[in-house]
Amino acid sequence: MPPPDRSGEVSAANRGEAILRRFHIAIAVADLAASIEDYRRRLGVPPTAVVPGKYALFRTEQLNFSINEMPARAGQLRHLGFEDDAARDFSSDHDVNGIEWELFSPAAQDAKIPEVYGSTVVWGDARV
């Protein structure tokens, strides 16, 4: 299943609506499949995208949460950021503590996932 087509969407700002901004957190996990099931229960939503054995993304109304299978770094923060409807592209920088912060629109993140992980992305309610 391909990523959602956002090409025809009018931005919230252009519709006179409040701009959606979700907090983004990315962590490393020991076991992707077990983590997907755990976070599915905790967040109350299925993953938006899954790359089997590597990556999963969850989106709630407030949170953009991604997990990467990296057993040696399990439980560690990978980066923080914001998913912002008003963002024009995908950007990244580091704060004074060396933490990476990303800023991106939903469409930019959806495009970045296959760029980083290849065409094995499963979009929608993916069970691994």
Please write the string of helix (H) and strand (E) elements.
EHEEEEEEHE
Principal-axes shape call: globular
Q: Give the CATH class.
A: Alpha Beta
Q: How would you name the CATH homologous superfamily?
A: 2,3-Dihydroxybiphenyl 1,2-Dioxygenase, domain 1
Low-confidence sequence ranges: 8-13
CATH architecture verdict: Roll
Helix residue percentage = 10-25%
The main pleated sheet reads as: 8 strands, mixed
Give me the number of helical elements.
2
How large, in whole angstroms, is the Cα Rg? 15 Å
Whole-number total of structural domains: 1
Spatial strand sequence of the major β-sheet: 6-7-5-1-4-3-2-8
Mean pLDDT: 88
Which structural category fits the helices and strands?
alpha+beta
Terminal CA distance: 15 Å
Tell me how many strands there are: 8
Q: Provide the CATH topology.
A: 2,3-Dihydroxybiphenyl 1,2-Dioxygenase, domain 1
Strand content: 25-35%
